[in-house]
Amino acid sequence: MAEIKLQTPLSDEDIEKLHIGDTIFLSGIIYTARDAAHKRLVDLIKEGKPLPIDIKGGVIYYVGPAPAKPGYAIGPAGPTTSYRMDSYTPILHEQGLKATIGKGNRGAEVVDALKKYKAAYLAATGGVAALIAKSIRKAEIVAYEDLGAEAIRRLEVCDFPCIVANDCYGGDLFQEGVKKYRIT
Amino acid sequence: MRDVSVKEIEGVVGEMCMDANYNLGEDVVDAIKKAKEREESPTGRAILEDILRNIEIGKKEKLAICQDTGFAVYFVELGEDVRIVDGHYMDAFIEGTRKGYTDGYLRKSIVSDPVLARVNTKDNTPPIVYTNIVPGDKIKITMCPKGGGAENMAEVRMLTAAHGIEGVKKFVIERVEKSGGNPCPPVVVGVGIGGTFEKCAMLAKMALIRHPLGSHNPDKRFAEVEEELLEKINNLGIGPMGLGGRTTALAVHIETYPCHIATMPVAVNINCHAARHKTRVI
Q: Does B47 contact A176 at a Cβ distance shorter than 8 Å?
């Protein structure tokens, strides 16, 4: 279980370094998207239209932040549950997305896509939104402002903390971790 | 009769929205601290440590501890000797919620219709208000911001008498196991047994706001089931955020109600570790 600093955009080599259980400190640019924004992004891909954000080598963070108080770059911003995005995720990895950040385990279609397209799923801690927001230096809405908290935001992050939950080798920390501590 | 102004209720409701989202109850904080001492998984301990640091930041900087500031759910005990003046009772909760969520920089998470348009109402209204008429001339309000991630893990099952208490236990454990890391463990597990289809769901929700956390059902038989379920749930190994560990639940609370000879409804409602609720009396 290594501690790894990552800088966006991410390359195949960056992803190959990651193994489940590794602690990641991510810096650079990441984009926010949840249920409603995912639906719109995937509809655009299916229609062959360009996306409002560049996802090649990119990272999507599943979050709908709270409003920012004066003097703050962003409001509390912890991860939302990832499985709701499972059906949209493989096609985004196919388009070059390198990592997603959220909470909770992923379905088989995502685990397969991570192997196929060399990508990773990173777990952030749910419910520690005020703490996580400290690693977000800048936030601006870049698409779908009408969605409110669900709009796509471009975040500038510095040492954003997360854990590799699914790597590109088929590893799954949710399964491995639970197996290790289960008492039967 | 005692006159209580809608304006007064509205003000209290607005304050409660902020208080509940910024300041986690000390009983919950203590339970998380104890869990951290017991936790064997290094990842699990690190997560619990972050949870505690986050709670401190929320308190100190008056920030929501979770960005999901929830559906505003109110449980009200309305004294029958209270007369509501200066407006309508429900408006106090609607306006108070709007003000609390707007002035408190809390997230607006409510969409106007559940399936078709799903347009955000932009002020977190409407709230959900459950009112019980009780003796007396006071109004006791409990505000509970309920996040969506944990709520999605809830289930009602219409068991029958033949399933017995073992059937209840099996259902509860199965529901928590299937939920895995999704509801942000360590969780609080609320169980409602008895009543009708909707009553047992209410009981499970009420179980989540039992205070202090980890206190037991006054019926010793159910208190023992709470203990047993907590141990079995923590033996599942799900751990903090589902990444493995000894702490899956902080507490199991069971509430019961009489039921029909033909039925035995059971509901499980799960709360994340941010088990937020505040009570005020007017």
A: no
